[in-house]
Structure prediction request, 51 residues.
Amino acid sequence: MTAENLDKQTITVNSSISLKGIVKAIFKDNIHVQIGGKVISLPLSNKDIAK
Prediction:
């Protein structure tokens, strides 16, 4: 593929995935979850916070 063809071939994907993990910490703006031996930080928005 050339650079000209690369601009014309754009792929957009909009999907969601489901992962199971252990919640390690919950902060005001993010949550730390352990998945498969790694701890990842996930940002939270106002709509994600249950009151």
In short: Residues 15 and 49 are 21 Å apart (CA to CA).
